[in-house]
Each structure stands twice: as structure tokens, then as C-alpha cells.
Design goal:
0% helix, 2 domains, Immunoglobulin-like, mainly beta, Neuraminidase, elongated
């Protein structure tokens, strides 16, 4: 059995007779090959045989009674050993990343229909509700929430946001519309029938407001980092998160979200690719990547033209609708596995 030693940052409160290099953590395998369900064995190496007291281990803040644990989550992990040596406190820490056990499947699309879309809309959130297409738009001084007739592109109802807010993700749950703002750490709750503002809520655990969707019982939110936050569907309090990962990397800048058939479909904010990630909401694992290359070339090319963003699932049509920031077209597509 291979033993891999992690030489770690040792936090030591002034004991000149004990060197930080006297301690290390040992594990039973390659930390970069661990995935959910694997058993991680570990121990504190103390070759100088210093007298130790109050030795305690934890993983991601969760105490571990034994010197092994089952890996329960993907993404960043923090293994910590706290103890005393020579009556001085030490904290030995190691961070590593747990990746998915396999690469995501690759998908493409079949174009079904093309519809008009407001070229002046900086699309942030896109979702169908009771047959109508709702959209949240961004930019300071131009942000809004709006209801549109998707087949014609007509905006039938629109509420501008105050110029101090930058609109972001949008979702509907329990009969209300929920809209995020970007850096203002504030979300708005509306009556979807008339856009009357019912109340607002703060999110102070996450970094920013990006994408938003829900599965009927849980609201999911991104913040520009690799975190997929889980929000209470009534209070919208942030109740923890999973991290979005593939088989070899953490994924940040996950933008607009859509929940469909047990999975989250997510735009990513990047200028050189038009892709959607397919994510397992329970674990954050990216199980698919949809290549939407070719759509941006079909819209009117102009100086303001921006990135691919906006995805909405139409359950009755069993199709997705996608667009982009300042795109003058909305595309209805079928997502299919690439051969």
C-alpha cells in the first residue's frame, strides 16, 4: 500500500524546541484520485515522538472520531489535525480537491425554431411561467424584469429596476417571482401577475448574485465562484452549498440556471465558447456539456453583441429556449447526445 505524506502548513504558537517540520499527515492514497464513497485513511506523523495531547481530526469542519472517513462531497476539502505538543497548540491543515469519478458526456443540439428577441436586452435570467416567457435583464440603469410573448418577441409587461441595481437570475416558486441582483446582495420577490414588489431578502453568505433556479422544493443559486448554493424556498436563506466539479477541475463563473428533469442546466460566462453544463444538484457533479457552437453566428452581429446566456425549459414542448446578451434571436432547441 502506497503511503503519501502531505507536508503542511503548521500553525505554531512559539515553542522553539519543536519544529514545524516535525509533523506531517499520512494518507492511504493519492488525494487527487479520491471521489465520493472512497475511504480516506490518515494519521499524524510524529517521528520525533513529541508528547501530544488532545489530538482531534476534522474534515470540512466535521469532527472525525476515527482515523478514517468516507468522502461525502465533491470539491474543496479541508483536513485538519488540532493538538498540543509541549503544551503549545498546533493546527495542521491540508486542502485538496475531490473530483468526479468520470468525465461528463458531450451533447449537441437540434435547432427546432427561431424567434425574435429584444436586441437591447442584456439577458440574465430566462424562465417560462404559466406559458409566458419571463426575463431578467442586467446593466445599471437598464435592468428590468419583463414578461414576453416568446413567439413574437413582444414585451407585454416590464418593470425597470432602480438604477442602483444590476439585475441577475430569475426563478418562480410558490407562486412568486424571485430576482437576484449582482453585487447588491439583495433579492426581490414579486407578484408575477403585476410585478408588484412583495418583499426583498439579503444573501450575505455568498459572494454575489448570478444564476437562479428551483426544483419545486429547493432554490439553487450561483455566485460567480464554484459554489452552488441551496436556498430555503420561503425565506431564501442560504443553507449550504455543493461545489461544481468535473473529473479534473472546479468550475466557476456559472451563470444562468434552469432546472429540468432532475438536473440543472447552466450557462457559463465565457467569451470564446457557447456551452451549457448539466449538473447534478445534490452533488455538484457536471455530468454533461452541451456544445451550442454556431448559434451566435446566426444573430445580427453588432458592436454590443455579448455572450451566450439564457436558458429556459418548456415542459409542454419538451424543449429548451436559449439566447444571449444583446442577441436579437431566441432559439428553440432539442438537446441530444453527441455521437
Amino acid at each position: 500500500m502506497r503511503i503519501l505524506c502531505f507536508f503542511l502548513l503548521i500553525l505554531l504558537s512559539g515553542c522553539s524546541s519543536i519544529s514545524p517540520g516535525h509533523f506531517s499527515l499520512s494518507t492511504n492514497g493519492d488525494k487527487n484520485k479520491l471521489t465520493i464513497g472512497d475511504t480516506l485513511f490518515f494519521s499524524l506523523s510524529n517521528p520525533k515522538e513529541h508528547s501530544l495531547n488532545d489530538l482531534r481530526f476534522s474534515l470540512n469542519g466535521r469532527p472525525i472520531d476515527d482515523q478514517y472517513t468516507i468522502i461525502q462531497s465533491l470539491g474543496n476539502q479541508r483536513l485538519v489535525a488540532d493538538f498540543k505538543a509541549g503544551d503549545k497548540p498546533f493546527s495542521v491543515r491540508e486542502q485538496f480537491v475531490v473530483f468526479a469519478d468520470k468525465a461528463p458526456n458531450i451533447y449537441t443540439y437540434k435547432l427546432l425554431n427561431t424567434y425574435p428577441h429584444d436586441e437591447n436586452a442584456y439577458t440574465q435570467g430566462l424562465e417560462f411561467y404559466k406559458g409566458m416567457l419571463y426575463e431578467s435583464t442586467g446593466q445599471y440603469g437598464l435592468s428590468s424584469i419583463r414578461k414576453t410573448e416568446y413567439s413574437t418577441g413582444e414585451v407585454v409587461q416590464k418593470l425597470p429596476l432602480d438604477a442602483s441595481y444590476f439585475g441577475e437570475g430569475l426563478t418562480f416558486i410558490n407562486g412568486v417571482a424571485v430576482q437576484l441582483t449582482w453585487k447588491e446582495n439583495l433579492g426581490f420577490i414579486y407578484d408575477p401577475n403585476n410585478f408588484k414588489l412583495l418583499r426583498s431578502f439579503n444573501y450575505d453568505k455568498s459572494k454575489e448574485g448570478w444564476g437562479l433556479c428551483n426544483d419545486g422544493t429547493m432554490v439553487y443559486k450561483t455566485d460567480g465562484t464554484e459554489r452552488l448554493w441551496k436556498l430555503d424556498p420561503t425565506t431564501f436563506a442560504e443553507n449550504g452549498y455543493v461545489e461544481i466539479v468535473t473529473h479534473n477541475k472546479l468550475i466557476s463563473k456559472v451563470n444562468e440556471l434552469e432546472y429540468a428533469n432532475g438536473l440543472i442546466y447552466a450557462n457559463t460566462y465565457q467569451f470564446n465558447k457557447e456551452v451549457v453544463l448539466i449538473i447534478k444538484p445534490a452533488t455538484g457533479q457536471v455530468v454533461g456539456v452541451v456544445d451550442f457552437s454556431g448559434l451566435k453566428e446566426q444573430v445580427t452581429q453588432h458592436l454590443q453583441l455579448d455572450v451566450f446566456n439564457g436558458i429556459a425549459y418548456h415542459p409542454k414542448r419538451n424543449s429548451f429556449f436559449v439566447t444571449g446578451k444583446y442577441w436579437d434571436k431566441l432559439f428553440e432547441v432539442e438537446i441530444i447526445k453527441k455521437e
